[in-house]
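Quick one, tokens below. Sequence please?
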């Protein structure tokens, strides 16, 4: 678990204000105190407060209007993921048309993971799931490491049974909201364990995609590392230019 004291101050402040909104201390349609009053109440700088307000606006909890103040709009956090979905082309379709098979699972420290997990200390504990993904249930097209926090361990029993991305399972089961996904792509020499699972020779060259899923408090809750043989995978991205 991520140490609370490692979180940025503005996120801790946002969490405190969310609790006050959800407890009706700041009721819906009411105005929040002024900026100086909030800074004094929570003993924070204006910069920290403004960053927190920005986060709360992105969640759909508050609205700022020039000369009027900050109004509480809702207790429920708005899911912004749909706007970001095009950043991961055909992710749902890919999952629905393929089969995930769990090979192994266990516990690991963040410092031992194949990916550098943001906002995580080297000794933070994660669950790692080793799996393969196949289209025809015979020839695997990908080898995967999936990292989740221990508090989400009950989701493991659903993997491979439901053709839904793991981040979506966690959203539904635990009320998490995904607000952004960071993606990294690189070529690499495929690790021996992955090469064996993929039926490849040692030192084969492959393609790695790492995705970090961030929740509404900008904390990583799922990391997926996927390794693909180049002759079994094609990645296509379409970019649409804005007129603005």
């Amino acid at each position: 678990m991520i140490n609370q004291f490692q979180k940025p101050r503005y996120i801790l402040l946002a969490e405190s204000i969310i609790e006050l909104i959800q407890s009706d201390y700041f009721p819906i349609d009411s105005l929040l105190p002024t900026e100086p009053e909030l800074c004094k109440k929570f003993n924070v700088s204006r910069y920290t407060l403004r960053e927190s307000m920005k986060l709360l606006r992105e969640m759909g909890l508050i609205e700022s209007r020039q000369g009027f103040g900050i109004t509480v709009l809702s207790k429920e956090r708005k899911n912004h993921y749909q706007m970001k979905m095009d950043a991961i082309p055909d992710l749902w379709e890919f999952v629905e048309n393929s089969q995930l098979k769990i090979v192994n699972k266990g516990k690991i420290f963040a410092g031992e993971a194949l990916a550098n997990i943001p906002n995580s200390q080297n000794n933070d504990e994660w669950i790692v799931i080793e799996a393969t993904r196949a289209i025809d249930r015979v020839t695997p097209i990908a080898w995967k490491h999936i990292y989740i926090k221990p508090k989400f361990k009950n989701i493991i029993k659903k993997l491979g049974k439901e053709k839904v991305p793991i981040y979506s399972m966690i959203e539904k089961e635990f009320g998490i909201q995904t607000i952004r996904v960071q993606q990294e792509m690189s070529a690499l020499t495929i690790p021996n364990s992955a090469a064996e699972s993929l039926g490849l020779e040692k030192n084969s060259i492959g393609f790695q995609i790492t995705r970090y899923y961030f929740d509404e408090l900008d904390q990583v809750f799922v990391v997926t590392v996927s390794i693909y043989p180049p002759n079994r995978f094609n990645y296509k991205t379409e970019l649409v230019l804005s007129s603005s």
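The radius of gyration is 21 Å. Residues 1-6, 79-90 have pLDDT under 50 and may be disordered.
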